[in-house]
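#onboarding

Welcome to the new folks! Below is a worked example of what a typical request in this channel looks like: someone posts a single protein sequence, and someone else replies with the predicted structure as tokens. Don't worry about understanding the tokens yet, we'll cover that in week two.

Example request:
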Amino acid sequence: MILGVKMNQNNKHHIAITGIIIRDEKYLITQRSNQKRLFPSMRTVPGGNLETVDYINDKNDTGSHWYNVIEKVLRREVMGEVGLQIKNIKYLTNMTMINGENPLMIFSLYCDHHEGDVELNGEGVDYKLVSLEEANGYDLIEGIYEELEMLDKILKGEDTREWSVGVEI
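Example response:
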């Protein structure tokens, strides 16, 4: 037991991929349905879980490996959640959390809007294109605003190094 949380002893993690979509120098945030078990009605960015079917039925890129699977997952999730095509996918950061007994690793990416208009699929009930300053006025899932800050610095050409919260690197 770690910090009062009963841990899954098989040492396996669930993996989720999220993406900050940049459109017209603003960031797309969506509002989760109030029916969601985790973070109901809060604002977030599109994303979802890595599933074995995201690669297992595709031809291997090498004898036993597949490349760019998290990018494929992000494209699928963005299209499914908000109906957009994206391009220029880049890595931002990652984090872990404990969800019940299951550790969850979240890879946060960012990308440009490529084509399409936002069409919510029911997981999200609203969306906004916001600047960093405007994002601060929304009820965002913990960590999302900090990721927007990090991305804003990257886009302005500032040195971000590794992500840290209150720790000097």
